[in-house]
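Illustration 12: GPN-loop GTPase.
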Amino acid sequence: MLCKQWMQNLEAFQAAIESDSSYHSTLTRSLSLVLDEFYKNLHSVGVSAVSGTGMEAFFSAIEASADEYMDNYKADLDKRWAEKERLEEELRQENMDKLRRGMEKSDGNTMVLSRGLEDEGVGEIVMDEEEEEFELFSEEEEKDEA
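Figure caption equivalent — predicted structure in token form:
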């Protein structure tokens, strides 16, 4: 239960690590505010590994967390997914319109649909290092050299 107390009470946690001056405790002190914020939104339950005490509370917490996920997070994820699908459909439709207009203008002639990075306004990619040449050897050539 000491862990649970530290999770719920930042001052008790800091008092417990105050006497230690190791690197580990210094790092833990630095991260304690982040941990405090993390534990505020985390459901926790004490469970005994020896006697199994607290298992009912554990399963109740899991059920409550599943309900919270379905009510809050899944609804938000579904909205994001629908928005992503809508934007992708708009992009597909825009590309089809662009293709249709291009085909009408070309009168059956060859046309360039995309120039890759040039369409995005990105210039040529310049390599700073010289390109190295590698020779490819077959197994027969290696045997001949040996």
